[in-house]
Specification:
Number of strands: 20
Number of domains: 2
Strand content: 25-35%
CATH topology of the largest domain: Methylamine Dehydrogenase, Chain H
Largest sheet: 4 strands, antiparallel
Structural class: mainly beta
Strand order of the largest sheet: 1-2-3-4
CATH class of the largest domain: Mainly Beta
Helix content: 10-25%
CATH architecture of the largest domain: 7 Propeller
């Protein structure tokens, strides 16, 4: 009996967290949309769904168990555009259109310090340094800022050079450089210790650069753009290594290397994920899910 009650209370808590916004909008949605959406393995579904047989039925193939909400982090007062775990997994950083950056304890969900303030527009991308001691952030205010995780203070003046929104930022694997992609159609590489650009902007994309990432060995950079292409660059010279990778039919929103650096994965507004050979540019496969 005690075990069943504990399970029920746990599932009830998950239900309240998961559907809080829906319920706050209209209490009737407890029955109209929240309850029908609960997985059949939940105690909430087991006890209450049979009492409302006329509500809609939601089905999803391949999902064997219910998803549990471990923590809900609350503090931002507007859209959260970016989140990242620290390298050791103990902290989470988030960036929001409320112009702040927040650092959270990933085990308790508590903020570890006051919000980091300095950006004057939406914070659209964030990331940790490889040693977890610094945070980099990019904003619609066209600046990049670097923060000390221990103090919450900026480690240097904002990095300026881009003339458009910052969509993506990230450290090199050794933490010495930062790469950034912007709506000004350029990619820039910065010295993480001095804030200076180490070369001229990388140019080639003909629309917003939405995602950038270093290869695991730090020698290459991959970028994805609203121009529907993926480009691979030599991180030391700024030269393109091969012709643009073409295959997506809409904006390329996200790109990244495999851990061994052999493959590149890309995600697009065309609803597909594509995998490429990073050495030859050949498309390996295309992943596209079924609409349920």
């Amino acid at each position: 009996m005690t075990e069943n009650l504990a399970t029920f209370l746990h599932d009830a808590n998950d239900f309240a967290i998961m559907f809080r916004e829906v319920i706050e909008t209209s209490v009737s949605h407890i029955y109209l949309s929240a309850l029908p959406s609960v997985h059949r393995t939940s105690k909430i579904a087991e006890i209450f769904k049979c009492k409302y047989p006329s509500t809609m039925k939601v089905t999803a193939k391949g999902i064997q168990g219910q998803r549990r909400v471990l923590l809900e982090l609350q503090g931002h007062i507007s859209n959260v555009f970016a989140v990242r775990f620290s390298p050791d997994g103990t902290h989470i950083v988030s960036g929001s259109s409320d112009k702040t950056i927040r650092i959270w304890d990933s085990r308790t969900g508590e903020e570890v310090m006051k919000p980091l303030k300095g950006h004057t527009d939406y914070v659209q991308c964030v990331g940790f340094s490889p040693d977890g001691m610094c945070i980099v952030s990019g904003s619609a205010d066209e600046t990049i800022r670097i923060w000390d995780v221990r103090t919450g203070k900026e480690t240097m003046k904002p990095l300026k050079g881009h003339t458009g929104n910052l969509w993506s930022v990230g450290f090199s694997p050794d933490g010495t450089h930062i790469v950034s992609g912007s709506s000004d159609e350029t990619i820039r590489i910065w010295d993480a210790r001095t804030g200076q650009e180490i070369m001229k902007p990388l140019q080639g994309h003909t629309n917003d650069v939405l995602s950038v990432s270093f290869s695991p060995d730090g020698t290459q950079i991959v970028s994805g753009s609203s121009d529907k292409t993926i480009r691979i660059w030599n991180a030391r010279t700024g030269e393109e290594i091969m012709k643009p990778l073409m295959g997506h039919t809409d904006s390329v929103l996200s790109v990244g290397f495999s851990p061994d650096g052999i493959y590149i994965v890309s995600g697009s507004s065309d609803e597909s994920i594509q995998i490429w050979n990073a050495r030859t540019g050949e498309k390996i496969m295309k992943l596209k899910g079924t609409h349920w």
